[in-house]
Design goal:
The protein is mainly alpha-helical and 67 residues long. The protein has one domain. It is flat. The protein starts with 7 loop residues before the first helix and ends with a helix.
Length: 67
């Protein structure tokens, strides 16, 4: 199977090359930071759930302020 080039992947995803490069760099840093600890990086599904819950907490905090 042929590996996709650094230009093809961002185009297929519809994102800027720089953005994708930043995301990859950040993920590599997170993985490296977790090495040697009991912590493991979040899976993609865990990250999606985390972001959903963060948004929900923010909405609930706004509701509480309103009340």
């Amino acid at each position: 199977m042929r590996r996709k080039g650094l230009i093809e992947v961002p185009r297929e995803l519809g994102v800027n090359e720089m953005s994708l490069g930043n995301w990859v760099r950040d993920e590599r840093r997170r993985i490296e930071a977790a090495k040697g600890t009991n912590l493991e990086p979040l899976s993609a599904a865990e990250r999606v759930e985390f972001l959903r819950l963060r948004k929900q907490v923010s909405e609930l905090e706004k509701d509480n302020l309103f009340l």
